[in-house]
Specification:
single chain, alpha+beta, OB fold (Dihydrolipoamide Acetyltransferase, E2P), 2 domains, five-stranded antiparallel sheet, flat
Length: 307
């Protein structure tokens, strides 16, 4: 077997200390933090693709070798390469993308969304988000990092402002009731715990009750067609995304994947009428009259759409 190099991403430090095209040694922890982000994201993406496997492949993390061999100009541009074992013959085929390549793109998409103050990618594993706290920690106010994945046409910019925005977004959490449907992609019987992948690709974890073990293990075994409905309480991020389920009250197996019709459920307009009935007129008069047209404005403070 021979080893070949494949460029993953160009990681460029810009501004401040990097205008002379040199890399301050104090900034090297950001490269290590970036690798940790990549590896942990790749692990979660692998688990989603392999719901029947309870463990990662042997030496999964040790096999991820990322190196740089030069510092290019244009700030301090550091091309990060991965080492891949190949057959001794030179292959004419394009190397097949795997979870590490996907992790590079997903982290870039996350940075881009945060930079534009948009909703983060639903496929972003919630358990890797706290790792952004260590990434960019050495940057000063007049410095930033540009990521240019190998297959991307334009770089994304990660600045102290973006890092702070991610921190505010994910440290502002709240609890609420939850009623979700998803696919069981992991189940552990000892110290019962399961992972559920939602339709958007986000995976959330929860401890389940011993009496739900049969439903959970059946859903895992039949994950290609079966889903589960989970009702309880969850911890949500500030943007409304589920971070984790903290209490499971009921788990229902859905063999065909469809949610059964609940004839006892009250219409949403009835629930809404109960919520607003005690509000004073002064408060009601402040409610939007343009339905959902400008929901980003009312929720996140974005500019209103032009009519």
């Amino acid at each position: 077997m021979a080893k070949t190099r494949q460029e993953l991403v160009v990681h460029t430090f810009k501004g401040g200390r990097f205008d002379d095209h040199g890399v301050d040694l104090d900034a090297l922890p950001d490269l290590l933090a970036y690798k940790t982000l990549l590896v942990e994201t790749a692990k979660e993406l692998w688990r989603r693709k392999n719901p029947d496997r309870q463990r990662l492949p042997k030496n999964f993390e040790d096999s991820v070798s990322i190196k740089f061999y030069e510092v290019r100009k244009g700030g301090a541009a550091i091309p990060l390469f991965r080492e891949v074992e190949t057959e001794d013959q030179i292959s004419l085929l394009e190397p097949q993308r795997d979870e590490l390549d996907e992790a590079v793109d997903l982290i870039a998409d996350t940075v881009d969304a945060a930079a534009q103050d948009k909703t983060l990618p639903p496929s972003l594993p919630s358990n890797v988000v706290p790792l952004f706290e260590d990434y960019g920690k050495t940057l000063r106010d007049d410095e930033w990092i540009e990521q240019m994945p190998a297959k991307r046409k334009a770089p994304v910019r990660y600045s102290p402002v973006v890092r702070e925005r991610l921190g505010r977004w994910f440290h502002s959490v709240y609890e609420d009731s939850v009623d979700i449907v998803g696919t069981v992609t992991m189940a552990r019987v000892s110290r019962p715990r399961m992972a559920i992948t939602l339709d958007g690709g986000r995976e959330v974890e929860a401890a389940f009750r011993p009496e739900d073990e049969g439903v959970i293990t059946t859903a895992l075994k039949e994950h290609a067609t079966a889903k589960v409905r989970v009702e309880g309480r969850a911890q949500f991020l500030a943007g409304g995304q589920i971070q984790r389920i903290i209490q499971v009250d009921r788990v229902t197996l859905l063999p065909g994947g469809a949610v059964p019709y609940d004839s006892t459920a009250r219409p949403i307009w009835v629930v809404f009428a109960e919520i607003v009935k005690d509000l004073p007129p002064a408060v009601l008069n402040t409610l939007p009259t343009d339905t959902a047209e400008n929901h980003d404005h009312y929720i996140y403070g974005a500019a209103k759409k032009k009519s």
